[in-house]
From TrEMBL, chain A:
This is ABC-type nitrate/sulfonate/bicarbonate transport system, permease component. The chain crosses the membrane at residues 12-30, 64-85, 92-117, 123-142, 182-199, 219-250. PROSITE patterns: ABC_TM1. Belongs to the binding-protein-dependent transport system permease family. It comes from the Bacteria. Signal peptide: none annotated. It comes from Melghirimyces algeriensis. One of its GO terms (cellular component) is plasma membrane.
Automatic annotation (TrEMBL), chain B:
The keyword ATP-binding applies. GO terms for molecular function: ATP binding; ATP hydrolysis activity. This is ABC-type nitrate/sulfonate/bicarbonate transport system, ATPase component. PANTHER family: ABC TRANSPORTER ATP-BINDING PROTEIN (PTHR42788:SF2), TAURINE IMPORT ATP-BINDING PROTEIN-RELATED (PTHR42788). The lineage of its organism: Bacteria, Bacillati, Bacillota, Bacilli, Bacillales. Residues 3-234 form the ABC transporter domain. It comes from Melghirimyces algeriensis. It holds the Pfam family ABC_tran. CDD domains: ABC_NrtD_SsuB_transporters.
Length: 262, 251
């Protein structure tokens, strides 16, 4: 427990110190509220707009989670297919990497044009953003199976499907989850960007409206909420990873122990 | 006769030529014998195991087990590599039943059988631990448990103790002999240690540098069960000296 505290304490202290300097800076310099509010001002604004923020948070969360699940599902499926069929790896995988140079913000208007202002195009945008890190990480994980483990299985008479199920897939799981963690940090962001381009509710709409009415304090409120939910999504993925791949955490722990002993 | 290797040859294309790795290896292995293979590193011993286990097909020659040709066919031997190859995502028990799973046997029955054997392998209380928690010796024993669980009567052990420290290694040797008394098997054993070869084996086969040929072989007449005291006996030292000379003589 003491070790955990030692790890958490320094960043927490840094944040507190930062907030104090910010608060003092705003008060002493007398900077205008609509330009840079003090943390205390943001907290007050947060309390005042609580209900409004809530109303705008749920649609964003809905788009983000649906898009996240869709993106990851498709990514996992495609990664497995790319791994099973070498011609897919040669024909599709390079294009997939190349497609990442196309900025999502440039594709989003197209999706809005095609699918309108409803939920679907936003889910699609989130899926597009979260899909990529998961595919790349999972494909990497699947193709880096230990050749001796594969040989051992083959010598037992295992067929290709058994080799996939017993070695390649489980050993790709940690990479899959690291991709998913990156995707989790993109999920809410993707939904907010989608809302910028056309929506009647959501944190993206809240942001634009705050900007238009020069309410910097509300922009900060939105930032806090977006960060909070991104962290929640990230922690959720972390939690699932812990349950699905317990050996990864045990290995890390044993390695730390080993380092201490030497 | 358990296993017969008939004029095995293996060569791989390298640039414009074919590099010969194994040259005319013929060997007969009687049921229940322990045969060590000793030779310079990189001489093709592991290639031979790949061929016997069916992972590779020889360019010429045949592998015959129990009177049936199995050249290029997998699933007839239990192969243990120098690396323990325990799957880090499986517990000790789950690793042990791997071959049963591959063979499509009842997993629950296999788990029960593995659990009964845990204490024999000094792994009691570690059934549900992941390999990361085990020491080097324990990992090797878990790998051997997996080998036993494969239910094959022919074992190929490729330097299974190569990565262990000297003390653990000696303990593992005695322990392996004990296991083999309990579960009689035919064993082919690759090692770099002359001591280990003499101590464990009924016969020691000396390989030449690449391409691997059988240079000579020695029958070990030490009594079984083997005891550590034997290692200083005259016949042990004689065998050791003979093998050392064979290994170091010029071609």
């Amino acid at each position: 427990m003491g070790e955990r505290l030692r790890r958490i304490l320094p960043p927490v202290l840094t944040v507190i110190l930062f907030l104090i300097v910010w608060e003092a800076g705003v008060r002493l310099s007398g900077i205008e509220d609509w330009l840079l509010p003090a943390p205390s001002g943001i907290a007050i604004s947060f309390a005042e707009s609580w209900e409004l923020v809530q109303r705008h948070t749920w649609p964003t969360l809905q788009e983000a989670t649906l898009g996240f699940v869709l993106g990851i599902g498709v990514a996992l499926l495609l990664a497995v297919l790319i791994d099973l069929f070498p011609w897919l790896r040669r024909g599709v995988y390079p294009l997939l990497i190349g497609s990442q140079t196309v900025p999502i913000i440039a594709i989003a208007p197209l999706l809005i044009l095609w699918f309108g202002y409803g939920l679907f195009p936003k889910v699609l945008i989130v899926a597009l953003v979260t899909f990529f890190p998961v595919v790349v990480n999972t494909v990497d994980g699947l193709s880096s199976a230990d050749s001796d483990q594969v040989r051992l299985l083959k010598s037992m008479g295992a067929n290709d499907w058994q080799i996939f199920r017993l070695v390649r897939f489980p050993q790709a799981l940690p990479s899959f989850f690291s991709g998913m963690k990156i995707a989790a940090t993109y999920g809410i962001l993707g939904a907010v960007i989608a809302e910028w381009l056309g929506a009647s509710e959501g944190l993206g709409v809240f942001l634009i409206r705050s900007q238009n009415s020069f309410a910097a304090d509300q922009v900060f409120v939105a930032i806090v909420v977006i960060t909070f939910w991104s962290l929640v999504l990230f922690s959720l993925v972390q939690l699932i990873a812990r349950f699905a791949t317990p050996w990864v955490y045990i290995e890390k722990k044993e390695n730390r122990k080993g380092e201490k002993e030497t | 006769m358990k296993l017969k290797l008939e004029s095995l040859e293996q060569s791989y294309p390298v640039a414009q030529i074919r590099r010969q790795v194994i040259d005319q290896i013929t060997l007969t292995v009687e049921e229940g014998t322990f045969i060590s293979i000793i030779g310079p590193s990189g001489c093709g011993k592991s290639t031979l195991f790949n061929i016997i286990s069916g992972l590779e097909r020889p360019t010429a020659g045949r592998v015959i087990k129990d009177g049936r040709e199995i050249t290029g066919e997998t699933g007839y031997v239990s192969y243990m590599l120098q690396k323990d190859c325990l799957f880090p995502w499986r517990t000790v028990l789950e690793n042990a039943v791997l071959s049963a799973e591959v063979a499509g046997e009842n997993k629950r029955k296999a788990l029960e059988r593995a659990e009964e054997l845990l204490s024999v392998f000094g792994l009691k209380g570690y059934a549900n631990e992941y390999p990361a928690r085990l020491s080097g010796g324990m990992r090797q024993r878990a790998a051997l448990l997996r080998t036993v669980m494969a239910n094959q009567d022919l074992w190929l052990l490729d330097e299974p103790m190569g990565s262990l420290d000297a003390l653990t290694r000696e303990r593992m040797q005695d322990w392996l002999l004990g296991i083999l008394e309990q579960f009689p098997k035919t064993v082919l054993f690759i090692t770099h240690s002359i001591d280990e070869a003499v101590y464990l084996s009924d016969r020691v086969v000396v390989f030449s540098p690449r391409p691997a040929r059988i240079k000579d072989e020695l029958t070990i007449h030490l009594p079984r069960p083997r005891k550590r005291e034997l290692m200083t006996s005259e016949s042990f030292l004689q065998a050791k000296r003979w093998l050392w000379e064979k290994l170091h003589e010029e071609e």
